[in-house]
Amino acid sequence: MAQNIIAANWKMNNDEYSSKKLTYDFLKLLDRKNDNKTLKILCVPYPFLSSVDNMCSGTDSVFVGAQNCSSFEQGAFTGEVSTLMLKSLGIKYVIIGHSERRELFSEKNEDLLNKIIQSIEKEIYPIFCCGEPLSIRNKSTHVDYVLNQLQETVLKLNKESFKKVIIAYEPIWAIGSGKTASNEDIKEMHGAIRGGIKNKYGSSVSKNTSILYGGSVKALNAKDIFDLEDVDGGLIGGASLEAQEFIDIVNSIS
Ligand code: PGA
Fold first, then answer.
1. Which of 81, 235, 246, 249 could anchor a disulfide with 168, C-beta 3.0 to 4.6 Å?
2. For residue 75, how far is its CA from the centre of ligand 1 (angstroms)?
């Protein structure tokens, strides 16, 4: 069985004070509820990784992740943050290939594969994002498009390395738009992704791979999405910036 995971993607929001406050409020609400077995990952901006990680150190199901990493190991790459640096801070997770990185910063599958390799080498689990733009969905070529994103990246890994990968399917048109994919859309894509993993690595690996859904997940729609076959959790953007809303999402997964 794949591990259930709810990951928060704070994106470029919050300053130091509000990051600590959001983490504090989240942990307090989490304590009050009976904690479930779901892994919670807070993917926060680089400057706040350590302080948020320190705050989470008393829990055994909340971890901190970065939102990006360099595709290079080290050297003259001004402004970049390496997986070696993340590892030295004790960070265990990193989002790779978010559509905002692909679209706004021109990250290509080739760069993303290098980032994935860098992260796995440093024992950091990549949360690899895939997803199609609306123009592709309108042409009904979305399944091939997403499988191709995987074929050019994570499916190039050997089996042992692939076992470290978490997949997040995020249709680009659903991100931050308030439009969630329909349950049928999500089921179709998650099933196709699991099928692609099975073809390459066999059914045991495919069953154990966590496949998250992301794109306008809110407390109101979370349970319906998480109850779908082949959905093992979510990658939550806007709704992770409010502690109670995020806790309600965490508590929607069974
Ligand atoms: P959203 O973002 O929940 O605000 O749609 C999800 C994401 O971009 O990871």
1. 235
2. 32
User: How wide is the angle at C-alpha 254 spanned by C-alphas 28 and 54, nearest 5°?
Assistant: 30
Closest ligand 1 atom, residue 99 Cα: 8
Which atom of ligand 1 is closest in space to residue 236's alpha carbon? 3
Predicted local confidence at residue 109, as pLDDT: 96
Centroid of chain to Cα 197: 17
Ligand 1, from 170, 186, 220, 240: best to mutate by most atoms within 8 Å of Cβ? 170
For atom 3 of ligand 1, the residue with the nearest CA is 237
Residue pLDDT, tens place only, 31-51: 665 566 899 999 999 999 999
- Residues annotated catalytic, as ranges: 98, 170
Global model pTM greater than 0.85: yes
Per-residue pLDDT tens digits for 85-108: 999 999 999 999 999 999 999 999
